[in-house]
């Protein structure tokens, strides 16, 4: 079973590189059973979305 530390590391790496099949499966199993890691994944996606919007138009507040 993957630890939360390993899961958050993979969630972060997922933003920079494609995960291999084994990593995707292990991460999927972990986040299905772990609400805090699921929440972390949602927060990471939201931060990425905010950053993209800012980079597109830095004057938007």
Quote the average pLDDT: 91
The portion of residues forming beta strands comes to under 5%
Largest sheet: none
Task: List low-confidence stretches.
Answer: none
SS summary, helix count: 3
Distance between the termini: 42 Å
When the domains are counted, the total is 1
Write down the secondary-structure element order.
Answer: HHH
Number of strands: 0
Shape: elongated
Query: Helix- and strand-based class?
Result: mainly alpha
User: Fraction of residues in helices?
Assistant: over 70%
Radius of gyration: 14 Å
Protein name: Zf-HC2 domain-containing protein
Organism: Marinomonas arenicola
InterPro entries: Znf_put
Task: Write up what this structure looks like.
This protein has 61 residues and is mostly helical. The chain has one domain. It has three helices and no strands. Helix 1 packs across helix 2, helix 1 runs parallel beside helix 3 and helix 2 crosses helix 3. This is Zf-HC2 domain-containing protein. It holds the Pfam family zf-HC2.
Write the layout of secondary structure elements.
Blueprint: H1 4-14, H2 21-33, H3 35-56
Helix pairs in contact: 1-2, 1-3, 2-3
Domain Putative zinc-finger: 4-38
Protein name: Zf-HC2 domain-containing protein
InterPro entries: Znf_put
In short:
By secondary structure, the protein is mainly alpha-helical. It is built from 3 helices and no strands.
Primary descriptors:
Znf_put, elongated, 0% strand, 61 residues, Zf-HC2 domain-containing protein, mainly alpha
